[in-house]
Amino acid sequence: MSIDAANLIKAAVPEAEGRSARIISQNVSDHRDPNFLSKDFPRKPPKLYLTAESDEFDAVTIAEWQAEGFDVEYLPMGNGGDEYLQKLRGLRGNEMSSFEIFGIVAYGDAAAMCLEHYHIMDNNPDFKLKLLIAYYPTAIPDPKGQFPNNISALVHLIAGEDVGVTKQSQMIGIQGKRRTTHKTIQPGIGTGGLLSLAYPSYTYQAQPGFAEHDLDEYDMISAGLAWSRSLAAARRAMGQTVDLEPVWEENVQGKFFTRNLKPTMSSYTTHKSPHVTYIPTLTGGIGADELEEFYSQYFGNPKSLKLTLLSRTIGADRIVDEIHVRFKHTQEMPWILPGVPATQKRVQILVVSIVTMRGGKLYHEHVYWDQASVLYQIGALDPDVAPEAARKLGIEKLPIVGSAAASRVLKGWDPEEEGEADNDLIAGWHDGDDGVNDQPQKSEQADDKDNQGLKKPEEKVVRNPEEKVVKKSEEKVVKKPEEKAGKEPEEKVSKQPEEKGGEKPEEGQGS
């Protein structure tokens, strides 16, 4: 038997007529929940409304949301006021969808009106609005007031910008007095600009308009951060599940293992110009043609190359891999050692690959590693031999390590505790230690020297007149003439002449 709990409550409480009743808890599955049906059930793209003041909107942003699987429609704000609010009340989801839920991404003044309107519980009576994202609104609701729990809200604010703060007390069906004050948005905490409001909010060091590609205020870094957060919020609210791993693994398989570039090239987006950059050497390619040329002609690797995935982090539009890479440098490798002939040296390093996706395809990849460690391991850089320019700066030894970093992360270092750092390069860190912690690092450095074909310098010895062999580093003991065996040398005391009258001059007086 199906029970309409909302209408039942309204019938039991006649004075609630015209107000929204909400089910706080129930023991049965909610058929309106997008996750009620299996993920294989045919679905229409979720509806997403973009809204701002202008009659037309940034075509690139619209295309990006469409590429992520949303049915996008632009809603101009027009003259605002009641006319705009009436438009908001008339919004509906995709009528061909099973649930007709929808989301709103609003900008500027339109964002301010949407935030204030939907912060009131009764303005989403059928619970169809699931998502509300606001970019640089000119006003925000009470920072201590939560949105109705059926709406996932996300607000992107400008640090240092003055905004209106609207407070309005409310009960179910009853709205109190509306008050608006103005406050300056303070930078959020950490590097991400997180604010401690009742609804998810972030700040950006940018100008209003930073997320719109067709404006002079567009800021690539801020727009990218906000996009990742917005896409993640939209997918959670709309019940979207997108598996990014298969397309990334096809890319890796083709360029590193099978050398079949067809799946590699097909993994790149055609929506934008894809690009790959190996950051330490600035090698790679921009656009599909350059990438195909780079991977077919300049990405050769020796058969000894081995990749070990240490960790993988997957976001809404990003994959971050931490990889242990090792190889014997038996051929030229332009992506990591451009212009360097084969050295026959063994190398192991840690590589971090950050892949950004658009519409389920690779948009760009940034790859990082420690190039100084690579040069050290092939014998092109010796930390014990500082260049003249470094010596002029007072640097006697280059603060770099060889294979130790990669080896320790892969295999561990101390079996009795976790962690890899030994702080051997920090002067004074081991003062007072027994020296036990120094040994592993020295051993690893010796392995790098052996790999380079460099022998350790032989320990010099000297012979004293009695032909006893002693190490040069040992402290030489010289007997003083007055020192006799078994006796401590007497301490010489310098006697001062006695003052006249047996008294010392008082402080402040002359002698």
UniProtKB/TrEMBL annotation:
GO biological process terms on file: polyketide metabolic process
Molecular function, one GO term: hydrolase activity
Top-level division of the source organism's lineage: Eukaryota
InterPro entries the record matches: Cyclase_SnoaL-like, NTF2-like_dom_sf
The UniProt record lists the keyword ATP-binding: no
Keywords, comma-separated and alphabetical: Hydrolase
Protein name per UniProt: Dienelactone hydrolase
Source organism of this protein record: Trichoderma guizhouense
